[in-house]
């Protein structure tokens, strides 16, 4: 029977990226069911209560204290606690570098030490992130706000402040950007080129960036905005600021805008603004029923993320043979009819796949995302019908690393789906690059071995379809990952959109 133990480290701060790594490593070393490390803010303690990871001791923790909740069998709790303490002690911040130079302890010291600094990436807990972001904006710095759990009102105030100061606030919950060739957070090593991108979705931004790179068309800049920026409450403040930068950037000849459909007022504002930028603009709003108003304004619209990349690439290379680069594999001759299960780490990729597959799927369709025509399903529910799961959703990441960093939860679900005799096709994304797990293919192959050992029905009895979002210059490279997957008998499609359509057709015997 599982028990929960709470470890409190008083007056100890670590950023969210470190805490995700600590949780993953301590859990792996000890065999504990779950290790969740968070600062002891009221919101974080509420999340731990909702996840069944709270204890009476936890109430003693304050916002300046680090709280680590450990869930597992009794014999794993001591091992997990020892691992947590060792990791905390071994990675404590140092006051000086190896060269003897002083290491800045806060933003003010960093700017004083190097006045040329112009951007700060913030990954602290939401309660702290708002404060640090405001300080950075006041100092005249651009901000990449990786942190989430920031109130909408605080986001609006930060972005209005940034507009007055002439700086950019990317986020909250901005996971991807490439500025002047420098990849930030979850990003990829791609070539420089003439396409500037503004994206209100992380993995959607990565998908377009990597597809352009494979098509031989590099990017000038890639700005993330955060998922709420295009809502009417925020009014596209970051999107507009980023678009204006691309307008002034002499290296940007083509502009791409992507995200979920903006609010009515924001969309109308963008329809007026985009044609005035003086450069060709390509737009895709994920889930939009049409782009008629954009097309009427002379903008180029795309039907999916793959089409968006192809259209932009052909603006640079009109004779480009895209089919030779983004290829669709041959359909299996004897694909057995049955249900499709989609297992995703990228929320945008999951939504795109569900929307593209839906018209081809017969029977009930479910998802933990809000997708038109899909029945909502809870995170702890068993899959039914055709089911699309986004494991990057908050319900799965409370106290856990994002599945792009730690794919274990996603692989556990894969093993379960392989044991369902009604499943005929499993569709998965794999996002590689900076910040991502270094051996996602290995994790997938180990899961297939486990499934084959546990069940009479093995992975060879169904079709597994994967799309790999990444670049050949990444480490590991996309080319290497694709070769390993195909050698194991897994079908690899050239893009997420192609994989979704291929997988849906396979459930119907390949018709």
Largest sheet geometry: 7 strands, parallel
Strand arrangement within the widest β-sheet reads: 16-15-17-14-18-19-20
β-sheet strand percentage: 15-25%
Residue runs with pLDDT of under 50 for 5 or more positions = 92-98
Mean pLDDT equals 89
* Total DSSP E strands: 20
In CATH, what is the class of the largest domain?
Alpha Beta
Q: Please identify, by name, the CATH architecture of the largest domain.
A: 3-Layer(aba) Sandwich
Report the span from N to C terminus: 48 Å
- The assigned structural class equals alpha/beta
Name the shape in a single word: globular
Structural domain tally: 3
Based on CA atoms alone, the radius of gyration comes out at 23 Å
CATH topology of the largest domain: Rossmann fold
Q: Overview of this structure, please?
A:
The chain is an alpha/beta fold. It folds into three domains: 3-90, Gyrase A, domain 2, CATH 3.30.1360; 107-324, Rossmann fold (3-Layer(aba) Sandwich); 339-506, Rossmann fold. Helix content is 37%, strand content 20%. It is built from 17 helices and 20 strands. The strands form five sheets. Strands 16-15-17-14-18-19-20 form a seven-stranded parallel sheet, sandwiched between helices. It has a five-stranded parallel sheet with strand order 10-9-11-12-13, with helices on both faces. The longest helix has 17 residues, at 74-90. It is globular.
């Amino acid at each position: 029977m599982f028990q929960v133990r709470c470890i409190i480290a008083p007056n100890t701060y670590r950023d969210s990226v470190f805490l995700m790594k600590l949780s993953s490593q301590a859990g792996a070393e000890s065999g504990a069911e779950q290790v969740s490390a968070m600062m002891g803010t009221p919101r974080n303690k509420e999340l731990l209560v909702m996840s069944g990871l709270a204890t009476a001791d936890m109430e003693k923790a304050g916002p300046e204290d680090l709280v680590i909740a450990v869930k597992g069998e009794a014999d794993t709790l001591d091992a997990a606690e020892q691992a947590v303490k060792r990791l905390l002690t071994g990675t404590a911040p140092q006051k000086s570098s190896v060269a003897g130079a002083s290491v800045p302890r806060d933003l003010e010291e960093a700017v004083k030490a190097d006045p040329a600094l112009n951007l700060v990436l913030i990954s602290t807990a939401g309660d702290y992130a708002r404060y640090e972001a405001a300080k950075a904006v006041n100092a005249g710095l651009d901000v990449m706000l990786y942190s989430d759990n920031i109130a909408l009102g605080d986001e609006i105030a930060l972005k209005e402040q940034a507009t007055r100061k002439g700086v950019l606030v990317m986020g909250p919950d901005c996971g991807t950007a490439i500025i002047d060739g420098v990849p930030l957070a979850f990003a990829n090593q791609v070539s420089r080129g003439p396409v500037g991108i503004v994206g209100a979705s992380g993995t959607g931004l990565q998908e377009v960036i990597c597809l352009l790179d494979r098509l031989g068309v590099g990017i000038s800049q890639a700005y993330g905005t955060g998922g709420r920026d295009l809502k009417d409450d925020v009014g596209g403040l970051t999107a507009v600021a980023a678009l204006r930068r691309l307008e002034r950037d002499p290296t940007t000849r083509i502009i791409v805008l992507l995200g979920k459909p903006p609010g009515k007022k924001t969309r109308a504002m963008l329809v007026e603004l985009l044609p005035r930028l003086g450069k060709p603009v390509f737009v895709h709003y994920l889930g939009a029923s049409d782009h008629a108003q954009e097309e009427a304004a002379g903008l180029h619209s795309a039907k999916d993320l793959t089409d968006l990349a192809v259209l932009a690439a052909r603006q640079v290379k009109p004779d480009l043979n895209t089919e030779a680069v983004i290829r669709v594999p041959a359909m299996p001759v004897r694909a057995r009819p049955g249900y499709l299960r989609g297992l995703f780490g990228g929320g945008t990729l999951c939504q795109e796949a569900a929307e593209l597959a839906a018209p081809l799927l017969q029977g009930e369709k479910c998802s933990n995302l809000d997708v038109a025509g899909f029945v909502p399903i809870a995170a702890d529910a068993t899959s039914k019908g055709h089911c699309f799961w986004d494991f990057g959703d908050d319900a799965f990441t409370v106290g856990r690393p994002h599945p792009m960093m730690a794919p274990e939860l996603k692989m556990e679900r894969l093993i379960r789906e392989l044991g369902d005799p009604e499943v005929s096709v499993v569709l998965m994304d794999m996002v590689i690059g900076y910040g991502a797990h270094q051996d996602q293919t290995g994790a997938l192959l180990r899961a297939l071995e486990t499934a084959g050992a546990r069940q009479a029905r093995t992975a060879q009895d169904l079709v597994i379809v994967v799309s790999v979002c990444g670049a050949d210059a990444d480490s590991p490279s996309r080319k290497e990952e694709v070769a390993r997957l195909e050698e194991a008998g897994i079908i690899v499609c050239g893009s997420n959109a192609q994989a979704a359509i291929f997988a849906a057709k396979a459930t119907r015997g390949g018709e």
